[in-house]
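User: My instructor asked us to take a sequence, write out its structure as tokens, and then describe one feature of it. I'm not sure where to start. Here is the sequence I was given:
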Amino acid sequence: MSGRVTENMPDYKKDKKRVDGRKMEELRPMSIKVGVLPNADGSAYLEWGQNKVYAAVYGPREALPKHTQNPLKANIKVTYRMTTFSVPERKQPRPNRRDMEISKVLGEALDKAVFTEQFPNTEIAVLVEVIDSNAGSRVACLTAASCAMADAGIPMRDMVAATGVGKAFGELIVDLNKDEEDAPDAVDIPFGILPNSGEIVLLQMDGLLTKQEWEKVAALGMDACKKIYEVQKKALAEKYQLSEVSENSIAPTISAKKETKVEAPSKKETKETKDQAKQGFAGGAKQNVLPQVKAKKVKKWELPF
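Assistant: Let's start with the prediction itself. The structure tokens for your sequence are:
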């Protein structure tokens, strides 16, 4: 438990404000940028509060070794890693059980969103790297990985939007930070959905809630994920908008095409052209008629058998 929480035990029901000044249903500031890694088929960079995450997608490509191939669908292989400097106490660089567990649940969540049956015997590799962390790194990685999948052009039913929901200091809240995760009554629930269908693809819980509390917190999670989904769509749309430089280079070309007009011939030129055409047609008709007349005269003296 952090020193801040121990010394100052806030009462969210009384204060109506969280330790970082947010409202109960308010998300931390978020920004997403796609196409940031040129060597990957698709990539994304996400900043969510203090969390900073890179996601890269490679594939679909042949699954190797061959015994891992599935003749019915593609395998989605997620690798979740945290840098050694991403948390206050240095993290060991080798993967631990938590890293393997998160890699597994992220892969299962993305599998629900992708049309994997279109790519049998292949593998889609997703690598997510946490550069800085302050609670909610798995939902941040899932949100970034979903954008990277879309950036790679992989057919998807929908993107996955995810956030943390739960309870801290006696109140149901959205997007817990580290102080709230360390609260004495903390309940942390990573929550991910396919926004268009409302299907839940990620749901884990650390702690206990009543049935009524779960119903309320699930509604908060749905609303928060829809807000995140709008940020994801905006990030993808911005990649394909024309930059200022492109617009400036295209504008002169368009204006030049508009200025270039084909001049219509004058009335005098039109009359001369018509006269020439008539003379040429008459001369050609005479030349064509004479051989026909001669041919008829020759055929007149021929025997009928």
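For the description part of your assignment, you could build on this observation: The chain has one domain: 3-240. Try explaining in your own words what that tells you about the chain.
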